Amino acid sequence: MRREGKGPTWEEETETQVLSRYGACLECRHAVEAGGILAILRRDNGQRVNGRVSYCRFNAKGHREIGIEFLNCDNFWDVDWNFDEPPVPQPETLRKPSGPAQNEPVLADKPRRKRHHSRGLANILVAKEKQLWDAIKAKNMHVLERLVARDCFWVTGEGVQVKSPDLQDLSEMSSMDCALEDFKVTVLNKAAAIVMFQGVERATENGS
Hints:
Elements: E1 2-3, E2 10-11, E3 18-19, E4 23-27, E5 37-41, E6 48-58, E7 64-70, H1 92-95, H2 118-138, H3 141-147, E8 153-156, E9 159-162, H4 163-171, E10 173-189, E11 192-205
Antiparallel strand pairs: 1-2, 1-5, 3-4, 4-7, 5-6, 6-7, 8-9, 10-11
Helix pairs in contact: 2-3
């Protein structure tokens, strides 16, 4: 992050966990007036963008933070924002800044943002699915009991199977090779998601 133009020129490194398609909330050691222009440079890919300071204040931890609205740039973070989930209100730090410094709304003319938490949830669900298949391969019934929900059921050509016989069938499967790839996670709401993937499995069941 670099201050250019009128006034003193300075440069510092920073990071953020509060971002949107049109801007971000960044910690900053320097005081910056609202309306000031900063240059933001991503270290991972070298992408650069100019941003207008919407507010500058101290947060609850006593750290100065600023709200940035990107200029002439759409999706600077290269994030897929199209998640099938209800919109979530903006984080408090972006929606209503307050403090001893500037106190202006951030991105007031932009549409409501979604908090980017689905990516973390998708990673957790994919990891759990991989743990399940590792437990099947290792015949680890303790892990299977923990990972498979009590109300779990499968729909097969033989009908609907509930958890107890499912685990018995899994314990009798001798998996020699199982590759999971091309995961796709669709978050329906805070309590439900659909996990889809492609898998190649070589196994024997009941010695056949």
